[in-house]
Structure formats: C-alpha cells, structure tokens
Write a structure and sequence with these properties.
mainly alpha; 3-stranded mixed β-sheet; 3 strands; 9% strand; elongated
Length: 154
C-alpha cells in the first residue's frame, strides 16, 4: 500500500537524502519497524480524539485543496494494509508532525553528541545541516542552532 505523507521540505531532505534513515522513495516500511509502528499507531482502528482543535491544522483546510509539490511529500510503501477509511487528512497531518518531531529529536541528539567533542553550537548545527544534506533553501543551519538553544534541558 502506498501512503503519501505531506511534510515540510526540510523534513523530506532529512529522511530521504540519508540512506541510513529512510533512503530513496518509495520507502519500504515493515509493520514491525519503528516507522511502521508509528504509522500503525496513527492509523489505529479506534484512535483517541484527533486534531480537531489543534492550531496547526485549521478545520477549513483540506489536503486536496493544496497544490502537490513532490518536495513536500514522503512516499511510504507499506508492507501492510490500512483501511482507506482511516486514511484521513487529520491523520496524515499528525503523521507529518511525528516525522518533524523525529527529525528534531534526532537533530538535538546528534548535535549534543557533536558538542561533547567540540563545544560549539554553530559548528554542530552547520555539520548536522551539511552531513544530512538538507537544502539551504528549505531551512538554514541557523535554525538548527536555534533549536539547540531552545532545548537546553533535553
């Protein structure tokens, strides 16, 4: 089953341009993998109340109304089936937010590890940006440095 997840361009860069993370599209996802477990959790049969009043998903916006940009989607090839009635815009947006969160947590861990050797936020953010092949037009390395500064307690 093919699942197209709308994501920010920098999230796609992070997951797709690194073969040790997801690799080339369509990304092969097994049900018992970490991403597979995440997908099955989001598209569970009876999920808790979904994003009806959360600010990042306005109620009057549908994904069908948005223009399609390949740089804003990750294509997952699932080795398992999800009933089509469970694949809703809200759940796709939720999965997108999970991908964004995974990227942020990975970035924080990677940059903190780098700072154990060279305690420079700028160097850690620049190297993360370069190593993970994130397009400068999508997000600058300075945004990762700011992420690091905002999350000093993690």
């Amino acid at each position: 089953m093919k699942l197209i997840v709308p994501v920010k361009p920098e999230v796609k860069d992070f997951f797709i341009k690194n073969s040790d993370i997801l690799g080339k599209e369509p990304c092969q996802i097994r049900k018992n993998s970490r991403i597979g477990i995440l997908v099955t959790t989001v598209f569970a049969h009876n999920p808790p109340e979904l994003l009806s009043d959360i600010e990042f998903f306005p109620k009057d916006v549908s994904l069908e109304e948005l223009p399609k940009f390949p740089e804003n989607e990750i294509i997952l090839e699932l080795s398992f089936k999800i009933p089509h009635q469970f694949v809703t815009d809200e759940r796709l947006i939720l999965l997108s937010k999970f991908f964004e969160l995974l990227m942020d947590v990975y970035a924080l861990a990677w940059m903190r590890g780098r700072m154990d050797y060279l305690p420079s936020e700028n160097s850690a953010a620049t190297l993360f940006h370069r190593k993970h092949k994130i397009n400068d037009g999508h997000i600058k390395s300075d945004a990762f440095r700011q992420l690091l500064r905002r999350n000093k307690t993690i």
